Amino acid sequence: MNKGDLFTCPFTVNSEIYNGFISLFNDKNPLHTNSDYAVHQGFSGKVMHGNILNGFLSYFIGECLPVKEVLIQTQEIKFLKPVYLNESLLLHAEVEDVHESVNTIVLKYYFENRDKVKVAKGKIQIGLLK
Amino acid sequence: MISDRLKNIVLKELDLDDFDFKDSTTADMVPGWDSLTHIQIIVAVEKNYKIKFKGIEILKIKNMGELQSLIDAKLAAVSTGL
Lengths: 130, 82
Known about the structure:
The structure holds 2 protein chains of 2 kinds. Chain A is built from 4 helices and 5 strands; from the N terminus they run βααααββββ. By secondary structure, chain A is α+β, with helices and mostly antiparallel strands. Chain A has one domain (6-128): Hotdog Thioesterase (Thiol Ester Dehydrase, Chain A, Roll), CATH 3.10.129. The radius of gyration of chain A is 16 Å and the shape is elongated. Chain B is an all-alpha fold. Chain B has a single domain (4-79), classed as ACP-like (Non-ribosomal Peptide Synthetase Peptidyl Carrier Protein, Chain A, Orthogonal Bundle). In chain B, helix 1 (4-14) crosses helix 2. Chain A binds chain B through residues 73-74, 97, 99-104, 106, 125, 127, and chain B through 36, 38-40, 42-43, 46-47, 52-55, 57-58.
């Protein structure tokens, strides 16, 4: 991979993922599980767990890059807008820097929704295994 | 002599408040400096100084003094356009 390389990957926060996340991690905070509460807090409905997006990033790094021998070294994410159930997102990622001396690549990324609104952004540093 | 700039980069990556780095300081003498944090330190040095090392250059480094010398050589090469 080279600096400037671009990647995209589509995702949807469907019921299976939403319920699976709650089942696995037991985060049943009312913001995520009670529509009335979420609306009362100013949202349009139940807000999906932000860390579902980290699961999408894990899939992207592990399965969608042109190389499979990779290891996430650092990761940062900023949640910019709420994501709701059944919302479709498109992940955009770009190779920001290549550190050949230590076989490391830095990707910057963002998720956008169908309205082209960025809902999250961040950076991931990955190591290329030998 | 280890510059404050390099010292602070290493301290930050290792989450250390302070350490008395000398030219002869090796990685195994510094708390937390292992193979994984080594990668973070090199990446941080490359970003901070806006320089790039070669893999073989990193492998040859034996201590902090040699890392400082390599950085200085890279910066000198940049300033002279080499």
